[in-house]
Design goal:
Layout (H helix, E strand, L loop, with lengths): L4 E9 L2 H12 L2 E3 L6 E5 L7 E5 L4 E8 L3 H13 L5 E2 L2 H7 L1 E8 L5 E8 L26 E4 L4 H10 L3 E4 L3 E2 L5 E2 L2 E4 L7 E3 L8 E8 L2 H13 L4 E7 L6 E6 L5 E6 L16 E2 L14
This protein binds 3-methylcatechol and fe (iii) ion.
Length: about 300
């Protein structure tokens, strides 16, 4: 009874206007404006929020919320953490209310990523998701979570053990030649049908994360986003291509915070037996430099 999905994420952002335009008009998320100058939320489905943006002078990940199935599953997780000697704190009523969940704990990943484990998100069953721009389909979320993230976990072995303890499975899936002659062996981990919900081991990075990936149910929505990114002249970090591991058609572009957004479509489910790859199916050619993704897929 470990974690079952990447439930929510919180970020610090410095440019609210740029982010609202980007997330809503370009990507298609639904703006939830609660009238606070320093905060807004983004919906991707019937959850009250999947992403929280805290407006201040930083541009980085604030926290990740991993979901467990029930209060019992959270108590079991706490036993597991205590058994492994990992520190955590219980979120207060106010903190649970603030995240719009019924309960949570807080801890740090080996790389120092503020990590929360929660149960019972607020599902607004009577408030259908309303995309910020016309969409042919939806964001692929539900039991696959909001997407995946590539995190700054410098100690790959420790991170692998930590996320396994939380209930994830996975390991090295690529061996990639780097421009500096080294070989990168990134680790990809799954906690549900999504081929990976977290990955790390892509080399040093400045922020807490390199990118998040979100997935559309319809190819044409990926196409509309791609057109919009190109029309606005936003940096494309890796061009359209198909990954070998999740077989998703994706491209990578800059966000107003300098970290990267990967948008995709058509991923396959996580496999039972492990495999590794030396490159991608096609595409994913590097374009804009300086985004910490200088790998040769
Ligand atoms: C991914 O989603 C990814 O970001 C990389 C670098 C490789 C395979 C799948
Ligand atoms: Fe990715």
């Amino acid at each position: 009874m470990g974690i079952i999905e990447l439930g929510y994420m919180g970020f610090s952002i410095s440019d609210r206007a740029a982010w609202e335009k980007y997330a809503v008009q370009t990507v298609g998320m639904e703006l939830v404006d609660t009238g606070k100058a320093d905060r807004f939320h983004l919906r991707m489905d019937e959850w009250s929020r999947r992403i929280t943006m805290n407006v201040n002078d930083r541009d980085d990940l604030d926290y990740i919320g991993w979901r467990v199935a029930s209060p019992e599953a959270l108590e079991e997780m706490i036993q597991t953490l205590e058994g492994a000697g990992i520190d955590y704190t219980r979120g207060s009523e106010e903190e649970a209310e603030e995240r719009d969940v019924l309960g949570l704990i807080k801890l740090l990943s080996p790389g120092g990523i503020p990590t929360e484990i929660f149960f019972s998100p607020h599902v607004e069953a009577g408030k259908p998701f309303h995309p910020g721009r016309p969409m042919y389909g939806r964001f692929l979320t539900e039991n696959q979570g909001l997407g995946h993230c590539i995190l700054n976990e410098p100690d790959v072995e420790k991170a692998l053990a930590f996320y396994k303890l939380l209930g994830m499975r996975g390991g090295v899936q690529y061996k990639l030649g780097m421009p500096n002659g080294m070989v990168a062996q990134p680790v990809f981990m799954a906690c549900n049908e999504r081929q990976h919900s977290v990955a790390f081991g892509l080399g040093p990075m400045e922020k807490r994360l390199n990118h998040i990936m979100i997935e559309y149910t319809e190819l044409d929505d990926l196409g509309l986003s791609h057109d919009a990114i190109r029309e606005q002249g936003i940096d494309v970090v890796m061009q359209l291509g198909k990954h070998s591991n999740d077989q998703a058609l994706t491209f990578y572009c800059a966000t107003p915070s300098g970290w990267v957004l990967e948008m995709g479509w058509g991923a396959r489910a996580s496999l039972d037996a492990t495999e590794h790859y030396r490159g991608d199916v096609f595409g994913h050619r590097p374009e804009a430099k300086g985004y910490g993704l200088d790998i040769d897929l």
